[in-house]
Structure of F-box domain-containing protein:
Amino acid sequence: TWRDIAIPLISEDELAEKMEKAREYDNFRLQKYIFRLWHSYTEGQKKLLTVTLVRIRRMCCRYKLLAILTKWRDKAQHKYKKREEELILKHELQLLKWRSKLKCNAVAKEEFPFPEHSASEVSLGSEVPECDISLFPERVISRIFAYLTLRDIIICGQVCHSWMLMTQGSSLWNSIDFSAVKNIITDKYIVSTLQRWRLNVLRLNFRGCVLRLKTLRSVSLCRNLQELNVSDCPTLTDESMRYISEGCPGVLYLNLSNTTITNRTMRILPRYFQNLQNLSLAYCRKFTDKGLRYLNLGNGCHKLMYLDLSGCTQITDSAMEVLSAKCHYLHILDISGCVLLTDQMLEDLQRGCKQLRILKMQYCRCISKEAAKRMSSIVQQQEYNPSDPPFWFGYDYEGKPLKKQNEETPLKGDEEVILTESTHNSEEELA
């Protein structure tokens, strides 16, 4: 009785109605879930379609620009060739007229000689050409002026306006050698020249030039610089090298020989000159082994093919061990005068520098003949001399500076011995 009262009986009709409602609700939830999945799929497809449309439009614009640029380039090349041919034709016609005029003058003088004219006047009248060099094509003018030095180009630019325009060709200023005019050129002219031709300069030579810091900082304007020679520059400092390295990251050839650079510069080189191939540090005695190890920091100067360390008496085997472990492309190495290097350095080179071809070891007293003989069978060319450094090196076999008395009054017998030993090649020494 209690069960009948607590749980009332449900009729079959009511139960069927409730089951129908439950099915409808379950179908509704299933349709809602499917609709959500379909909606997210359609939204993703729409986004993909918009992205592809944008890419197609960009590609169409790019192809249109390429077609326009190719047409413009072809038209410009055609105009340039046409203009060059017209100039060459004009020059040839002028040359023919000049030759025919010379022949007519010669024939007229032979037929009607004038005794009152002197021989000098006749020769001057027949030899003076009426040909203007400014009418030559631009490439011909650049080839002619390429044989002149910087001083001659400056003088030619002061002749007249047309000659000044001829000296302003961009190809003439790809390579500038300031060392040839270091005694007459001013810092102001160097700065103005580098500012004007900063995009054309590829090679700079400041060997032996005494320059101010502002002038050396102007080198950083040459973004396309590939070769830089600042050897024997007494005013070159670490600060100026910092400015140069930050502005000219594409340098491939760098000559810092006989300068006062320190470990600060050696730390800057691998940071900016990662494509450096030729490096000369000859007679730079202010940096230490720590500075030479900096060349292998990070990406470093691992593409070095030529390295000159001649006269660096402070270099030891520990620095050369780190260097040979990273510089695998090294082809030429000069360690002449590095009196502290021993046979261990040659073993490190054999393990690390597999592509080494030329090795110079003049006046390396601590390297034995047996080690040099083993090394000569690996490299193609070798220079070896175990004798003491000559007096003009400025230091003895221990790397200590020589006294002034030894430098001023060397013995004649010692000089003769040094000269005869320095002329021996590697094969004579090993024999």
Notes: The first strand starts at residue 175 and ends at 177. Confidence is low (pLDDT under 50) at residues 113-129, 404-431. Residues 278 and 306 are 5 Å apart (CA to CA).
